[in-house]
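Hi Y.,

Following your request, here is the sequence exactly as I used it, all 270 residues.
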Amino acid sequence: MPGTIHFGETAEGVAVVALANPGKFNAMSRAMWRELRLGFERLQVDNSVRCVIVRGDGGHFCAGGDISEYAGFRFQEESLRAFHEDDVWGGLQSMLDCDVPIVAQIEGNCMGAGIEIASCCDIRIASTAARFGAPIARLGFPMAPRETELVLREAGALTVREMLLEAAVFDAAQMLNRGFLNRIVAVEQCAPEAMATAQRVATLAPAAARMNKQYIRAFHAQNSLPTLAEYALPAIHSIATMTQQAYRYADSPEHREGIAAFVEKRKPVF
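Below is the corresponding structure, written out as tokens. Let me know if you'd prefer a different format.
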């Protein structure tokens, strides 16, 4: 059964967005990224929706990208660019642009694409069994520029450095202490707590909530991280310039080795 995203709505004006990819801990396929974009574009203009819960099926949030698809596009620069800039960023940007409050219900694995999706949510609630990371260094490729900036803003530089450079994985208590989570609850309480939170939000003034999100987004951008130019990186002067150069690794030996090793269930040799 291919991965998909289920969109539903309760009687209280709470929409539920469920990531579903059975047997793969809800890893995001290309089709799922596109569904995410279209779904949040619809939610943005649906005035009956007052809050959104994003969760995963089967006790996990999202374990990353669906690596079974990677051989079909990751080793060519242009198709790799299209995947990250159109599919992935299209889905994430639609969440960031959504003025409806979003609650993340995080259970089990929240890795790679999962932590990017969680970073787009306004309130993050996790079970004590949740695990967080982006161990893509084991796969031989970096996180894309826009995605890195997103997670960096929400999770913090020290955490992102460990995730990307050391392939570190953190538990829920660590991510709470590092400021990424609003709260953690027992495994059996995660879904009820997320729903109770969404219902509290839904009882409040919906137009005010949308305006608050617009203001928060504007001020967040105004107080953003230093630009790449301010870091004085050679030959890199903006996110746009970095993005142009970001996917040249597509056909590199370590990229191919990382993906091959994962598929073959062996340790990569870099």
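The longest helix spans residues 77-96.

Thanks again,
Q.
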